[in-house]
Amino acid sequence: MKISIDIDDNYKDTEVVIRTPKLTQDVEKMIAVMRMLNMQIAVNKNGETYLLDAGKILYVEAVERKTFVYTEEEMYESELKLYEIEREFHKHDFLRISKQSIVNLRMIKSLKTDINRRIKITLKNGEQIVVSRMYADELKNKLGVK
Questions:
Q1: Which of 54, 81, 98, 142 is the most buried (most CB within 10 A)?
Q2: What pLDDT score was predicted for residue 16?
């Protein structure tokens, strides 16, 4: 892979051009990462609304009809329903792992098989969450793990 950067004051905006003989998984991942940089979600904390970059989200969880968004440092509440966030971020490496949770695949540090075909995920911040057996195979496929 060759990377070129052309910096010129005359350019009005940043443009990324990918030249490739064919569309591979690696190229698709690069595109997804670049798109995720521009993906944001409105979240609330202490009466203030923040625009949170999707790449900073560890996971999203629905508890008692409320949706919570977790980063390494903070927990926020979202007005969106879990399925709305899933639909919005599905193509950007977010995956449902249980009826009440969605995880950012880029924030997974390790996986461990748990009882009853469940999987215990350790996130980059050390927090652990459980993947229900209904979603375990999809997670393994998405990560290329057998």
A1: 54
A2: 82
